[in-house]
Every structure is written in C-alpha cells, then in structure tokens.
Amino acid sequence: DRDRTDLSLDAEVQIVVDLADQLRLRRFALMGPSHAGPVAVAVTHHASRRVSHLILYGTGARALIDDDTWRPLRDLILANWPAATHAIAALATSRCDANDVEAFAALMRAAASPQMTVALQEASLRYDVSGMLPAIRAPTLVIKRWGDPFVSSEACRRLASSIPGARLELVEGRAHLYTVGDAMALAERIVAFTAGADRARSAQLSPREAEVLELVAQ
Q1: In this structure, is the dihedral angle defined by the CA atoms of residues 169, 170, 176 and 180, taken in order, positive or negative?
Q2: At what angle do helices 81-92 and 98-111 cross, to 10 degrees?
Q3: Could you give the CA distance from residue 206 to residue 191 in angstroms, rounded to a whole number?
Q4: Which residues lie below 8 Å from residue 218, measured CB to CB, with a gap of 6+?
Q5: What is the Cα 43 distance to its own chain's centre?
Q6: Is the dihedral of CA 59, 62, 65, 69 positive or negative?
Q7: Helical H runs in the chain?
C-alpha cells in the first residue's frame, strides 16, 4: 500500500486483526519474523484469546537497526533503491545461493517504494513492546539462526526470558531470511511447536474443544 499515512504500532495491530476477521479466523498461530516481531507481540497482547501460539523468529523487542546504522542506509535507499535492495538482500541471505539474493532484492522492490520503505523503518524505530512481554500468555517460541547478522543471540535470550514460559531455540545457519537456507528445519520446529509437541497446547483446538473431542471419543 503506497498511500498509507498511519504507520503507528496500533495501526499495524489493527491491520492484522482486520485480516483475521476477514478470513474468519477465530483462533490462529501467529509468526512474527524480523521487524514484524514487535507487531506480532502487540497483536498477541491485544487479541490474547485469539492467538493460540506466538512464534518470534530473528527478532527482538525493539527495531533491529539502530540510528547509527540506519542513517547511511536511509540515504542509500533514497539515492539508489536497486543498490540498496541488493545490499540488504545480500546480508539477509548470508551464505545462500546468488539466486536467493536476487529474488529477495526483487521482492523488496516489488513490495514497497523506497519512500515507503524509509517511512516503515522509521516508524518501527519507535516500536517498543517491552512492557507487553510479561503479560503474554500464549505459548511462545523464540527462534533464530546462530549466525544471523541482524539480531544477536543475547537479544533473543532477553526476549525469551521476558515472556512467561517462552522457549528459546538457536538453530544452525546464517541467513536472516527464514525462507532460504535450511528452511525445512525451521518449518519442522515451528510445526512441532504449534502442533502441541513437548506438551504445548495445539494451535488447532482450544482447551475446551480438545475436552469435547475427548468426551466424544470416549
């Protein structure tokens, strides 16, 4: 959407809730990768009865890029958008195939204008969901690749330790983008978590629905 003006965290939350309503999702598992992590936390805090599981991948409680890093990157985005997307993609797909770099760079150029990219990033710098974390009650998985250059293991550890009962998993790999590299290993861990492995509640049934199903089976 090239014409958005409200880029606040509340507006981001409302977009996700509206989408869930449109899809008639009474209950759903929610994944927040990278910069979407704080938004996913805020949605879970706002719609606590609807989010069955929260998965936070390669993210922290605040924006991943600090002001000192952002200023030169901002200038590059506005001056040479193709070069900027290629540079960001090369970092996000670290040690992956060259085709992955080109595909992600093309995706960024198709998804947003350079001006909207700058606006979204500058808005995300103001997001801070630290105060919401202790109130999260959904089963939560915090997961990242060891060599991810965008977020440190310590930042993920702090994030997980701030959410009651959250599980932290560090997996092999260096790519920040979750759809490249050993994406299947990530998918298997996430599906196992949402399916109720290790005694976590299933994303498919509410506790009451599971009770009714067990009674039917009996």
Answers
A1: negative
A2: 130
A3: 17
A4: none
A5: 12
A6: negative
A7: 9-22, 37-46, 67-79, 81-92, 98-111, 114-124, 153-162, 183-194, 207-217
Two tokens, residue 209 = 């629905």
Rg (CA), the chain: 18
> What are the DSSP calls for 108-142, one per residue?
HHHH--HHHHHHHHHHHTT-B-GGGGGG--S-EEE
Residue 95 CB burial class (10 angstroms; 0-12, 13-18, ≥19): exposed
Query: Interhelix angle for 81-92 vs 67-79, to 10°?
Result: 130
| Helix (H/G/I), strand (E/B), else coil: 182 | coil
- Write the pLDDT tens digit of every residue in 98-151: 999 999 999 999 999 999 999 999 999 889 999 999 999 999 999 999 999 999
The pTM of this model reads 0.87
**Contact (Cβ atoms closer than 8 angstroms) between residue 105 and residue 86:** yes
> How long is the chain?
218
Percent residues over pLDDT 70 in the chain: 94
Q: What are phi and psi of 18, to 5 degrees?
A: -60, -40
55 and 32 in contact (C-beta within 8 Å)?
yes
